């Protein structure tokens, strides 16, 4: 029986390359691809995969938030982060969201194949450079609930902040998350009040720093 996989990455060439490599393995089947986190969440509902290979930085809904939403609804799904980022905020927030693995994009395919099989055996897989970050935080005793966008803001506020940082208008945000313009305006005011930030430029900097979005998107 094949292991069903969804690939989530905003770069088509990455998705195609991963699909080609994964489908060379007789027991691995890529059932869908997604270019953003929102579509990934929807595809998990539709396709019921066992594994999602998730980029961290994606438009519309980032990989951290998408992972949280997927695992809230489908706790049996295994999410493996595949990212270029080794910054501790990205790594720790992804693992706190429930990811079972975190690999760097420069890893060999054999490492990804091994990670898929390990997480399906209910184990955690971390690339060596990533594992060092986790160990350092443990040794230093850094609080697990250190203040961040993921502890200060609600899920919906984080979604709105990401879309604001990506240059979406209030009406575009309302359409994307299926709420009224007035609701978006309320969320925006709450975000500013909680963070003590008044300008869109500063909110954008905050969203990038917290890993909600990226300059590359």
Concise synopsis of the structure shown:
This protein is of the alpha/beta class and 217 residues long. It has 2 domains: 3-140, Rossmann fold (3-Layer(aba) Sandwich), CATH 3.40.50.2300; 149-209, Arc Repressor Mutant, subunit A (Orthogonal Bundle), CATH 1.10.10. It is built from 11 helices and 6 strands.
Please give the CATH architecture of the largest domain.
3-Layer(aba) Sandwich
| Percent in helix | 40-55%
- Shape designation: globular
What is the topology, as strand order, of the major beta sheet? 2-1-3-4-5-6
CATH class of the largest domain: Alpha Beta
> Order of helices and strands, N to C?
EHEHEHEHEHEHHHHHH
Distance linking N and C termini? 37 Å
On the 0 to 100 scale, the average pLDDT is: 91
Gyration radius (Cα, Å) is: 17 Å
Largest sheet: 6 strands, parallel
Would you count the extended β strands for me? 6
Instruction: Name the beta content range.
Output: 5-15%
How many H/I helices? 11
Low-confidence parts lasting 5 or more residues at pLDDT below 50?
Answer: none
Number of domains: 2
CATH superfamily membership of the largest domain: Response regulator
Helix-strand makeup class:
alpha/beta
């Amino acid at each position: 029986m094949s292991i069903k996989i969804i690939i989530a990455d905003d770069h088509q060439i990455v998705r195609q390359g991963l699909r080609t490599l994964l489908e060379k393995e007789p027991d691995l089947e890529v059932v869908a691809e997604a270019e953003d986190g929102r579509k990934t969440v929807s595809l998990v509902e539709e396709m019921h995969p066992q594994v999602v290979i998730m980029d961290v930085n994606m438009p519309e809904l980032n990989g951290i938030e998408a992972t949280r939403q997927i695992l809230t609804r489908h706790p049996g799904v295994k999410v493996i982060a595949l990212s270029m980022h080794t910054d501790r905020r990205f790594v720790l927030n992804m693992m706190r969201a429930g990811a079972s693995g975190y690999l760097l994009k420069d890893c060999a395919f054999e490492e990804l194949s091994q990670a898929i099989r390990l997480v399906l055996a209910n184990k955690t897989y971390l690339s060596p450079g990533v594992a060092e970050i986790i160990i350092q935080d443990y040794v230093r005793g850094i609080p697990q609930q250190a203040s961040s966008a993921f502890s200060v803001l609600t899920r919906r506020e984080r979604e709105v902040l990401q879309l604001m940082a990506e240059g979406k208008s209030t009406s575009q945000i309302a359409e994307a998350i299926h709420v009224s313009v007035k609701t978006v305006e309320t969320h925006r005011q709450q975000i500013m009040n909680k963070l003590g930030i008044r300008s869109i430029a500063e909110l954008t900097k905050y969203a990038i720093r917290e890993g909600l979005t990226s300059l590359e998107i």
